[in-house]
Amino acid sequence: MRIKALAVLLAVTVWGCADATPPPVLDQEQSDDSVLVLEGQGVLDGLDQDLTSPVFSAPSAFARLGLMWDAPASGAIELRTSLDKSSWTEWQVPVETFEEEGVFSGHLDVPDGAQHFQYRVLDEGTAPTWVNVVPVEEIPTISDDEPVAVDDTEEHEAPVVNEPPRSGSFTIQSRASWRARPPRCVTSTVPNRVTIHHTVTPTNDSMSVAARLRQIQAFHMYSMGWCDIGYNFLISRDGRVWRGRGRNVLGAHVADHNSGNVGISFIGTYSSTKANQSQRCGAAAMLRWLHGKVPAIKLNRDDIKGHRQYAATECPGNALYGQLNGIVTLAQNGGCD
Residue 283 — φ and ψ, nearest 5°? Predict the structure, then answer.
């Protein structure tokens, strides 16, 4: 099997580093561990003459395969599943729950259970350019609760600290700015720490940040069955900070450790690619603002951790994890010049 570029077979790496929070909101949830992340030529490498992939296996049986993918058009990928690698289902197109700007999210349900899967590309010319597959142990029940209104007043606020960062104040991009769906439920929490993640989406992304965020949110809500996007805040490559759930809302990003834990996710994949200066400056300003709002969150590595410090995951990627000390120091020292 030849998997190149950013084709990664992940047994323990968490896609998007988010842990489930289906309604009602709980603090201990099933994680969304990816078994496959492929990008670019890696989607085609390893396919046989029928454009069929090798067999991929999940650590345990699943009832659903959640997918996110980028492709020129709908219906670019099909999947089939097996419990024993011997008997296989028919090829099926995943149910699409989101499509916009060539980014998709959806899932394929397997009522009788499975542990193995394959995908096939129908045409090389319209093949996906990025694929992420997440096994889900149980098909979630989607709540029919009425959407909840969200107060966006914390956006547009300057950092509340003894002195502003040397880079000046910053603006948190509101949920309205990326046209977020309203959440199905909201549970308050008292912040006392921060966990850093990465979304494991394309790093040098051709899609708009807003479209990528809407894709992630749709995946979390309609394929994973959660109330909302799992993260509290996200940081794009240009250093902008985007509101997810917000600082006082229980997030869904570290199973068994969500209470009081503000999840900040860097948009992209940082296994070998480092966060750029804009992101580091944005993250430092964000942390200083958060410390000013919540003094209980100290600007140190005891209160600001990487996801891997709580769970068996590579998140937030080796490259970004190696930068966390520097980002915290930058926040302590007032941010960027």
Answer: -65, -40
pLDDT average, residue stretch 49-69: 95
Q: What is the pLDDT of residue 9?
A: 38
Domain 172-332 top-level CATH class: alpha beta
Query: Distance between CA atoms of 14 and 111, rounded to whole angstroms?
Result: 24
Name the 3-class secondary structure at 219: helix
- CATH class of the domain comprising 14-136: mainly beta
Could you state, in order of their start, the residue ranges of all structural domains in the chain? Answer: 14-136, 172-332
DSSP 223: I
Beta strands 172-173 and 130-136 are: unpaired
Mean pLDDT of 213-231: 94
pLDDT tens-digit map of 248-304: 999 989 888 999 999 999 999 999 999 999 999 999 999 999 999 999 999 999 999
Taking Cα atoms as reference points, which of 77, 131, 89 lies closest to residue 114? Answer: 89
Global pTM value: 0.87
CB 95 within 8 A of CB 107: yes
Domains 14-136 and 172-332 share a fold: no
Which residues, other chains included, contact 327 with Cβ-Cβ below 8 Å and sequence gap of 6+? Answer: 275, 280, 283, 284, 287
Structure tokens given for 306: 């990487």
d(CA 285, CA 328): 10
Give DSSP secondary structure letters for 125-162: GG--SEEEEEEESSPPPPP-PPPPP---TTTTPPP-SS
